[in-house]
Amino acid sequence: MLSSPVWRGSPALAFRVGLLLGGAVTATVLVVVGSLVRAPLPWWARWVLVGAVLVLVALKELRVIDVRLPENRRLVPEGVFRLGRHLGPLQFGIEMGTGARTYLPSGLPYIAATAVLLTASVPQALFAGAAFGFGRALMTTATLNHPGDWDALWSRHARLTATLLSGAFLLALGTALIATA
Q1: DSSP label at 147?
Q2: Residue 7: what pLDDT?
Q3: pTM confidence score
Q4: For 28-42, what is each residue's pLDDT tens digit?
Q5: pLDDT over 90 for what percent of the chain?
Q6: Phi-psi sector, 74: left (phi>0), alpha (psi -120 to 50), beta
Q7: Number of separate helices (H) and strands (E) present in the chain
Q8: At what angle do helices 108-119 and 122-145 cross, to 10 degrees?
Q9: 109 vs 43, 61, 79, 121, CA distance in Å?
């Protein structure tokens, strides 16, 4: 579906904008709910909870434990395209950008969501949400630029890519921890 001609030009841009908006919506919800959740907790307790989720996700990703993280295990329906050439891809992007309507191939968003929920200010949350949407946009762009062989490319470089992304994520998380301590 993403490799069809409709995904070139402005519809593809609308989709990517939707991904960014979806990430921002999720981050906004997390920071608002987080304002209530974190109020009674000292800063160090919030970071202990983020660390616990990090350890859980790391053990899952390394296949040490077999635990299912909550996710909506279905794709965004093609019916969103009823809105036309631009609004359809925009809605599809928003739904996919929230991370709540489709698969999450990695556990890193759970750690990020926990960190936003328990520690982030509004600007930090919006930045994290936009970064999530941007990451999804990069994956989509890579898929469109390598039709037919994306899965093979990912399989060949998955371990290195996952290591680099995890390292960058941990660096960002550590920087956030130092900034709040």
Answers
A1: T
A2: 55
A3: 0.81
A4: 999 999 999 999 999
A5: 24
A6: beta
A7: 6, 0
A8: 160
A9: 21, 12, 26, 17
Q: How far apart are CA 112 and CA 130, in angstroms?
A: 12
Question: What is the identity of the amino acid at 128?
Answer: A
| CA–CA separation, 17 and 100 (whole Å) | 17
Q: What is the dihedral of CA 137, 139, 144, 147, to 10 degrees?
A: -170
The residue count for the chain: 181
| Tokens matching residue 88 | 């359809």
2 falls in which pLDDT band (50, 70, 90)? low
Residue 8, token pair as written in the block: 């070139």
**Residues 24-61 as b or e (16 or more Cβ within 10 Å = b):** bbbbebbbeebeeebeeeeeeebbebbeebbebbbebe
What are 42-81's pLDDT values in tens digits?
Answer: 999 999 999 999 889 888 887 889 888 887 777 667 777 6
Q: For tokens 């489709």, name the residue.
A: 102
First to last CA, the chain: 46
